[in-house]
Design a protein that fits this description.
- It is built from eleven helices and twelve strands.
- An eight-stranded parallel beta sheet has the order 5-8-7-6-11-9-12-10, sandwiched between helices. It has a four-stranded mixed beta sheet with strand order 1-4-2-3.
- Helix 7 packs parallel to helix 8 and helix 7 packs parallel to helix 11.
- The longest helix has 16 residues.
Length: 280
Protein backbone atom coordinates (compact mmCIF):
# COMPACT_ATOMS: atom_id res chain seq x y z
CA UNK A 1 0.00 0.00 0.00
CA UNK A 2 1.03 3.60 -0.47
CA UNK A 3 1.96 5.73 2.52
CA UNK A 4 -0.73 6.35 5.08
CA UNK A 5 -3.18 9.22 4.49
CA UNK A 6 -3.09 11.49 7.54
CA UNK A 7 -5.18 14.47 6.39
CA UNK A 8 -8.95 14.52 6.85
CA UNK A 9 -9.04 17.00 3.96
CA UNK A 10 -7.44 14.60 1.48
CA UNK A 11 -9.31 14.82 -1.85
CA UNK A 12 -10.08 11.10 -2.02
CA UNK A 13 -11.29 11.08 1.56
CA UNK A 14 -13.59 14.06 0.88
CA UNK A 15 -14.92 12.42 -2.28
CA UNK A 16 -15.79 9.25 -0.35
CA UNK A 17 -17.51 11.31 2.35
CA UNK A 18 -19.48 13.10 -0.37
CA UNK A 19 -21.07 9.80 -1.44
CA UNK A 20 -23.27 9.95 1.65
CA UNK A 21 -25.32 12.39 -0.44
CA UNK A 22 -27.73 10.83 -2.93
CA UNK A 23 -27.14 13.59 -5.51
CA UNK A 24 -23.42 12.92 -5.44
CA UNK A 25 -23.98 9.18 -5.81
CA UNK A 26 -26.16 9.83 -8.85
CA UNK A 27 -23.69 12.30 -10.34
CA UNK A 28 -20.64 10.06 -9.97
CA UNK A 29 -22.26 6.65 -10.45
CA UNK A 30 -20.42 5.51 -7.32
CA UNK A 31 -21.50 4.33 -3.87
CA UNK A 32 -19.81 3.45 -0.59
CA UNK A 33 -20.13 0.72 2.01
CA UNK A 34 -18.62 -0.16 5.36
CA UNK A 35 -17.23 -3.34 6.81
CA UNK A 36 -15.42 -6.59 6.12
CA UNK A 37 -18.61 -8.60 5.56
CA UNK A 38 -19.78 -6.34 2.72
CA UNK A 39 -16.28 -6.21 1.24
CA UNK A 40 -16.17 -10.01 1.16
CA UNK A 41 -19.62 -10.14 -0.46
CA UNK A 42 -18.64 -7.49 -3.01
CA UNK A 43 -15.48 -9.36 -3.96
CA UNK A 44 -17.42 -12.62 -4.32
CA UNK A 45 -19.95 -10.87 -6.59
CA UNK A 46 -17.14 -9.20 -8.58
CA UNK A 47 -18.41 -5.70 -7.84
CA UNK A 48 -16.22 -3.07 -9.51
CA UNK A 49 -14.46 -1.65 -6.46
CA UNK A 50 -12.66 1.64 -7.00
CA UNK A 51 -11.02 2.23 -3.62
CA UNK A 52 -10.62 0.46 -0.29
CA UNK A 53 -9.79 2.66 2.70
CA UNK A 54 -8.16 0.68 5.50
CA UNK A 55 -7.62 1.97 9.02
CA UNK A 56 -4.20 1.40 10.53
CA UNK A 57 -3.29 -0.86 12.20
CA UNK A 58 -4.93 -3.34 9.86
CA UNK A 59 -6.67 -6.36 11.39
CA UNK A 60 -5.49 -9.87 10.54
CA UNK A 61 -8.87 -10.67 8.93
CA UNK A 62 -8.72 -7.57 6.72
CA UNK A 63 -5.15 -8.24 5.69
CA UNK A 64 -5.98 -11.83 4.76
CA UNK A 65 -9.03 -10.84 2.72
CA UNK A 66 -7.20 -8.10 0.83
CA UNK A 67 -4.27 -10.40 0.11
CA UNK A 68 -6.61 -13.03 -1.34
CA UNK A 69 -8.33 -10.38 -3.47
CA UNK A 70 -5.11 -8.92 -4.85
CA UNK A 71 -3.53 -12.32 -5.49
CA UNK A 72 -6.72 -13.38 -7.25
CA UNK A 73 -6.65 -10.30 -9.49
CA UNK A 74 -9.86 -8.84 -8.04
CA UNK A 75 -8.10 -5.82 -6.53
CA UNK A 76 -4.92 -3.95 -7.30
CA UNK A 77 -2.49 -2.74 -4.64
CA UNK A 78 -2.92 0.89 -5.70
CA UNK A 79 -6.65 0.69 -4.98
CA UNK A 80 -5.99 0.02 -1.29
CA UNK A 81 -5.35 3.16 0.76
CA UNK A 82 -4.13 3.15 4.33
CA UNK A 83 -5.53 5.90 6.60
CA UNK A 84 -5.04 6.94 10.20
CA UNK A 85 -7.69 6.34 12.85
CA UNK A 86 -8.60 10.05 12.79
CA UNK A 87 -9.15 9.98 9.02
CA UNK A 88 -11.21 6.79 9.25
CA UNK A 89 -13.42 8.40 11.89
CA UNK A 90 -14.26 11.05 9.31
CA UNK A 91 -14.97 8.45 6.65
CA UNK A 92 -17.13 6.00 8.58
CA UNK A 93 -20.61 6.47 10.03
CA UNK A 94 -20.55 3.20 11.95
CA UNK A 95 -20.59 3.27 15.74
CA UNK A 96 -18.10 0.39 15.89
CA UNK A 97 -16.39 0.43 12.49
CA UNK A 98 -14.36 -2.58 11.40
CA UNK A 99 -11.73 -0.42 9.77
CA UNK A 100 -12.65 -0.98 6.13
CA UNK A 101 -14.63 1.33 3.84
CA UNK A 102 -15.05 0.84 0.10
CA UNK A 103 -16.05 2.97 -2.87
CA UNK A 104 -17.46 1.07 -5.86
CA UNK A 105 -19.25 1.57 -9.16
CA UNK A 106 -23.03 1.26 -9.07
CA UNK A 107 -24.36 -1.99 -10.51
CA UNK A 108 -26.37 -0.55 -13.40
CA UNK A 109 -26.64 -3.90 -15.21
CA UNK A 110 -28.17 -5.51 -12.11
CA UNK A 111 -30.38 -2.62 -11.02
CA UNK A 112 -32.34 -1.24 -13.96
CA UNK A 113 -34.26 2.03 -13.82
CA UNK A 114 -35.06 2.65 -17.48
CA UNK A 115 -37.23 1.05 -20.18
CA UNK A 116 -39.33 -1.04 -17.83
CA UNK A 117 -41.47 -2.29 -20.73
CA UNK A 118 -38.58 -4.21 -22.27
CA UNK A 119 -37.42 -5.58 -18.90
CA UNK A 120 -40.92 -6.78 -17.94
CA UNK A 121 -41.37 -8.34 -21.38
CA UNK A 122 -38.24 -10.42 -20.79
CA UNK A 123 -39.20 -11.67 -17.31
CA UNK A 124 -39.42 -15.45 -17.53
CA UNK A 125 -42.55 -17.25 -16.25
CA UNK A 126 -40.44 -19.10 -13.69
CA UNK A 127 -39.08 -15.90 -12.13
CA UNK A 128 -40.36 -15.29 -8.61
CA UNK A 129 -41.23 -11.63 -8.08
CA UNK A 130 -42.00 -9.18 -5.29
CA UNK A 131 -43.28 -5.64 -5.90
CA UNK A 132 -42.79 -2.76 -3.47
CA UNK A 133 -44.44 0.66 -3.55
CA UNK A 134 -43.20 3.78 -1.71
CA UNK A 135 -41.11 1.98 0.93
CA UNK A 136 -39.28 5.05 2.20
CA UNK A 137 -37.23 3.63 5.07
CA UNK A 138 -33.83 2.49 3.74
CA UNK A 139 -33.41 0.03 6.61
CA UNK A 140 -36.71 -1.64 5.72
CA UNK A 141 -35.79 -1.77 2.05
CA UNK A 142 -32.44 -3.33 2.90
CA UNK A 143 -34.16 -5.98 5.01
CA UNK A 144 -36.56 -6.74 2.14
CA UNK A 145 -33.61 -7.19 -0.23
CA UNK A 146 -31.99 -9.56 2.23
CA UNK A 147 -35.20 -11.59 2.64
CA UNK A 148 -35.70 -11.76 -1.14
CA UNK A 149 -32.19 -13.12 -1.68
CA UNK A 150 -32.36 -15.53 1.25
CA UNK A 151 -35.78 -17.02 0.51
CA UNK A 152 -35.61 -17.23 -3.27
CA UNK A 153 -37.14 -14.18 -4.96
CA UNK A 154 -35.52 -13.69 -8.36
CA UNK A 155 -36.34 -10.02 -8.97
CA UNK A 156 -37.57 -7.09 -6.89
CA UNK A 157 -39.69 -4.43 -8.64
CA UNK A 158 -39.85 -1.09 -6.84
CA UNK A 159 -41.52 2.24 -7.44
CA UNK A 160 -39.30 5.28 -7.87
CA UNK A 161 -40.41 6.75 -4.53
CA UNK A 162 -38.84 3.89 -2.58
CA UNK A 163 -35.63 4.51 -0.64
CA UNK A 164 -32.35 4.67 -2.53
CA UNK A 165 -30.76 1.26 -3.10
CA UNK A 166 -27.34 2.74 -2.43
CA UNK A 167 -28.23 4.51 0.80
CA UNK A 168 -25.77 3.29 3.49
CA UNK A 169 -28.66 1.98 5.63
CA UNK A 170 -30.09 0.05 2.68
CA UNK A 171 -26.71 -1.54 2.05
CA UNK A 172 -26.27 -2.36 5.72
CA UNK A 173 -29.72 -3.96 5.94
CA UNK A 174 -29.27 -5.91 2.70
CA UNK A 175 -26.05 -7.51 3.96
CA UNK A 176 -24.69 -8.16 0.47
CA UNK A 177 -28.01 -9.02 -1.23
CA UNK A 178 -27.78 -5.81 -3.26
CA UNK A 179 -24.74 -7.27 -5.01
CA UNK A 180 -26.72 -10.30 -6.25
CA UNK A 181 -30.45 -9.57 -6.52
CA UNK A 182 -31.76 -7.98 -9.76
CA UNK A 183 -34.11 -5.03 -9.27
CA UNK A 184 -36.27 -2.91 -11.54
CA UNK A 185 -37.18 0.64 -10.46
CA UNK A 186 -40.19 2.16 -12.24
CA UNK A 187 -41.83 5.56 -12.07
CA UNK A 188 -44.29 5.62 -9.17
CA UNK A 189 -47.16 6.54 -11.50
CA UNK A 190 -46.38 3.62 -13.80
CA UNK A 191 -46.41 0.83 -11.22
CA UNK A 192 -50.10 0.04 -11.96
CA UNK A 193 -49.15 -0.36 -15.63
CA UNK A 194 -46.40 -2.79 -14.68
CA UNK A 195 -48.93 -4.80 -12.67
CA UNK A 196 -51.34 -4.81 -15.62
CA UNK A 197 -48.57 -6.05 -17.90
CA UNK A 198 -47.62 -8.82 -15.46
CA UNK A 199 -51.26 -9.92 -15.26
CA UNK A 200 -51.49 -9.95 -19.04
CA UNK A 201 -48.60 -12.43 -19.08
CA UNK A 202 -50.64 -14.83 -16.94
CA UNK A 203 -49.53 -13.89 -13.44
CA UNK A 204 -51.85 -13.06 -10.59
CA UNK A 205 -50.82 -10.03 -8.54
CA UNK A 206 -52.18 -9.43 -5.04
CA UNK A 207 -52.19 -6.16 -3.10
CA UNK A 208 -51.42 -6.49 0.60
CA UNK A 209 -54.26 -4.27 1.80
CA UNK A 210 -57.07 -4.42 4.32
CA UNK A 211 -60.51 -5.12 2.87
CA UNK A 212 -63.53 -7.13 3.94
CA UNK A 213 -63.10 -9.38 0.90
CA UNK A 214 -59.33 -9.74 1.24
CA UNK A 215 -58.00 -13.30 1.23
CA UNK A 216 -55.96 -14.56 4.17
CA UNK A 217 -52.32 -15.29 3.38
CA UNK A 218 -51.60 -18.86 4.39
CA UNK A 219 -54.94 -20.17 3.13
CA UNK A 220 -54.77 -18.75 -0.39
CA UNK A 221 -54.54 -21.22 -3.27
CA UNK A 222 -51.42 -19.66 -4.75
CA UNK A 223 -49.86 -20.98 -7.92
CA UNK A 224 -46.61 -20.46 -9.81
CA UNK A 225 -46.31 -16.90 -11.06
CA UNK A 226 -48.40 -15.30 -8.32
CA UNK A 227 -46.82 -12.34 -6.56
CA UNK A 228 -47.56 -9.68 -3.95
CA UNK A 229 -47.25 -5.90 -3.73
CA UNK A 230 -46.04 -4.41 -0.42
CA UNK A 231 -46.88 -0.78 0.37
CA UNK A 232 -45.64 2.21 2.30
CA UNK A 233 -44.83 1.77 5.99
CA UNK A 234 -47.52 4.17 7.17
CA UNK A 235 -50.05 4.59 4.35
CA UNK A 236 -50.01 1.25 2.61
CA UNK A 237 -50.66 1.00 -1.12
CA UNK A 238 -52.12 3.66 -3.38
CA UNK A 239 -55.66 3.08 -4.60
CA UNK A 240 -54.49 2.96 -8.24
CA UNK A 241 -52.07 0.18 -7.43
CA UNK A 242 -54.68 -1.78 -5.48
CA UNK A 243 -57.18 -1.46 -8.32
CA UNK A 244 -54.61 -2.75 -10.83
CA UNK A 245 -54.23 -6.02 -8.88
CA UNK A 246 -56.26 -9.24 -9.09
CA UNK A 247 -57.30 -8.93 -5.47
CA UNK A 248 -56.26 -8.10 -1.92
CA UNK A 249 -54.50 -10.22 0.65
CA UNK A 250 -54.07 -9.81 4.39
CA UNK A 251 -51.79 -11.40 6.96
CA UNK A 252 -53.98 -12.69 9.79
CA UNK A 253 -52.97 -11.35 13.21
CA UNK A 254 -54.13 -11.64 16.79
CA UNK A 255 -56.74 -9.12 17.88
CA UNK A 256 -55.37 -5.91 19.32
CA UNK A 257 -52.43 -5.73 16.92
CA UNK A 258 -52.70 -3.00 14.32
CA UNK A 259 -50.11 -4.04 11.75
CA UNK A 260 -46.75 -5.64 11.05
CA UNK A 261 -43.56 -3.86 10.10
CA UNK A 262 -43.45 -3.56 6.30
CA UNK A 263 -40.25 -5.60 6.02
CA UNK A 264 -41.73 -8.35 8.21
CA UNK A 265 -44.90 -8.43 6.11
CA UNK A 266 -42.74 -8.66 2.99
CA UNK A 267 -40.86 -11.67 4.37
CA UNK A 268 -44.16 -13.53 4.94
CA UNK A 269 -45.33 -12.72 1.40
CA UNK A 270 -41.98 -13.81 -0.01
CA UNK A 271 -42.26 -17.14 1.79
CA UNK A 272 -45.73 -17.77 0.41
CA UNK A 273 -44.64 -16.75 -3.10
CA UNK A 274 -41.72 -19.16 -3.08
CA UNK A 275 -43.86 -21.97 -1.62
CA UNK A 276 -46.19 -21.68 -4.61
CA UNK A 277 -43.25 -22.36 -6.92
CA UNK A 278 -41.55 -24.90 -4.71
CA UNK A 279 -43.95 -26.51 -2.20
CA UNK A 280 -42.26 -27.25 1.12
Amino acid sequence: MKETITSRQNSRVLAACGLLDKKQRKKTGLFRFDGIKLLREAIAAEVAIETVFVREPMSVETESLLREATEGGLLREEQILSVTESVFEKLSEEKNPEGVLCVAKQLSALHSDTEWESVVAEIAPEERLLLVEAMRDPGNLGTVLRSCAALGIDRLILSSDCADLYHPKTLRGAMGALFRLPTLRVDAEELPQVITRLRASGRRVYATALHEEAERIGTMALREGDCFVIGNEGHGLSEKTVCACDGRAIIPMEEGNESLNAATAAAICIWETVRAFRPI
